[in-house]
Design a protein that fits this description.
- There is one protein chain.
- It contains four helices and seven strands, in the order βαβαβββαββα.
- With 140 residues, the protein is α/β, with parallel strands linked by helices.
- It has a five-stranded parallel β-sheet with strand order 2-1-3-6-7, sandwiched between helices. It has a two-stranded antiparallel ribbon with strand order 4-5.
- A hairpin with a 2-residue loop joins strand 4 and strand 5.
- Helix 2 packs parallel to helix 3.
- It is globular and about 30 Å long.
Length: 140
C-alpha cells in the first residue's frame, strides 16, 4: 500500500493504521517525483495520496496508478473540489482529514472486488463508536 503524505506526523499515523489493518506499506513519501516513481515501479495493491505536497500535487502519481489499474484514494484536508474533474481522478475515493481507523478501513475495502484483505482480528468493530486519529506529539 503506497502512502503519499508530506506531513511526517500524518504519514506516520497513516502508516501505523495501515500496518494495524494488516497492510504492507510502501513509502511513505511526501515528494511528488518519488511518489510518481513508486507508482510506476512498485508492486502495489492500492495507494493513499495526499493531494497537496509541499506546494505541488500528487495528480501525476494518481494518473500513473490509474493507468496501471491500481486502486487509490485521495486523502486531504481540502474539499473534494480540489480534485480535477469531471473524469477518472474525480471518481476516485476521497478520504477527508481528519479521519479515523474505521473510515480508512472502509476506504481500503472500497478499492474493488479484490481489495487487500483485512484480517477479522484487525477489522474495526462496527458496534464501537469511531475514534478520531490524533497526531503524535514530538517530545523535543
Amino acid at each position: 500500500m503506497l502512502v503519499v503524505e508530506d506531513n511526517l506526523l500524518e504519514a506516520d499515523v497513516m502508516e501505523q493504521v495501515l500496518h494495524d489493518l494488516g497492510c504492507s506499506v510502501v513509502g511513505p513519501t511526501g515528494q511528488p517525483q518519488q511518489a510518481l516513481a513508486l507508482a510506476r515501479e512498485s508492486p502495489l495493491d492500492g495507494a493513499f495520496l495526499d493531494i497537496h505536497l509541499a506546494g505541488l500535487n500528487s495528480f501525476a502519481a494518481a494518473w500513473e496508478l490509474r493507468r496501471r489499474g491500481v486502486p487509490f484514494a485521495f486523502v486531504s484536508g481540502y474539499p473534494r473540489s480540489y480534485v480535477p474533474g469531471p473524469g477518472p481522478l474525480r471518481d476516485a475515493p476521497f478520504l477527508a482529514k481528519p479521519f479515523d481507523k474505521r473510515e480508512l478501513a472502509a476506504t481500503l475495502l472500497s478499492f474493488g472486488p479484490n481489495p487487500p484483505s483485512i484480517p477479522p482480528s484487525k477489522a474495526p468493530k462496527p458496534d464501537k463508536p469511531p475514534r478520531r486519529m490524533k497526531q503524535r506529539q514530538l517530545n523535543l
